[in-house]
Amino acid sequence: MRALADEARRGLRVKGVPTSQVTAALAASLGLALSELTEDPLDLTVDGADEVDPRLDLVKGYGGALTRERIVAAASRRQVILVTRDKLVPRLGARGRLPVEIVPFGRTLCARRLAALGCQPTLREVVGGPFVTDNGNWILDCGIAAQDDAAALDREIRRIPGVVDTGFFLGTAERVLVAEAEGVRVLRRAGDPGRT
User: Fold this and answer.
1) pLDDT tops 70 at residue 80
2) For 13-27, how does the pLDDT look when each residue is reduced to its tens digit (9 = 90+)?
3) Is 69 a catalytic site residue?
4) What are the residues whose beta carbons fall under 8 Å from the beta carbon of 66, sequence distance 6 or more?
5) Cβ neighbours of residue 83 under 8 Å, at least 6 residues apart?
6) pLDDT score recorded for residue 37
7) What are phi and psi for residue 114, nearest 5 degrees?
8) What are the domain boundaries of the chain?
9) Which one of 69, 101, 180, 182 is the catalytic residue?
10) pTM of the entire predicted model
């Protein structure tokens, strides 16, 4: 975001839709113009990820903004993900954690049903109580194994009443830019025409 602010000071015209209050505060402090979502699609979403598999499917949500990140990505023509090499995994779930955003009222039911699916749900906490998303919800961090079929687990979790969203982002990223010691490596989803 700081690099983007530098480009804006040099004349780049950019307006962003922040996915969290923390991001909005940082953008405002850097002088970046902000907007709400409108009927017009966004040109581009640039975001990070906590895991990226070889198909460019993702796990997101360690920062707690997964639902808003999904909404902004869905409102965009393109999604580009920025990561470091350590975020690349052979299968989603390899790092053993999947965030699931839930309605607080449904915590007991959600935790029980998640456990029945083989997940190990733990309420995300901060000093003073549960971590609260910008949507007023809670997050259950689920211990999971590396998945052979992340889409199937995602469908099962979404069927649980009280679940708002999961950290699985499947089929959304057009490309992933990987920061490495030698420079930036560009990974493209199969079928991406290679636009720059």
Assistant:
1) yes
2) 888 898 888 999 999
3) yes
4) 60, 99, 101, 165, 166, 167
5) 48, 49, 52, 176, 177, 178, 179
6) 87
7) -65, -45
8) 1-36, 44-188
9) 69
10) 0.90
Please identify which residue in the block is written with the tokens 């009927």.
39
Q: Measure the CA–CA gap between 39 and 158, rounded to whole angstroms.
A: 27
Q: How big, in percent rounded to 5, are the helix, strand and coil portions of the chain?
A: 25, 30, 45
All residues at 6 or more sequence positions from 123 whose CB lies less than 8 Å from its CB, including other chains: 107, 111, 130, 138, 139, 140, 141
pLDDT digit string, tens, across residues 40-78: 889 999 999 999 999 999 999 999 999 999 999 999 999
- 44-188: which CATH number, 1.20.1070.10, 3.40.50.2000, 1.20.1260.10, 3.30.70.260? 3.30.70.260
Number of H helices, E strands in the chain: 5, 15
> Using CA atoms, how far apart are residues 103 and 119, in angstroms rounded to an integer?
18
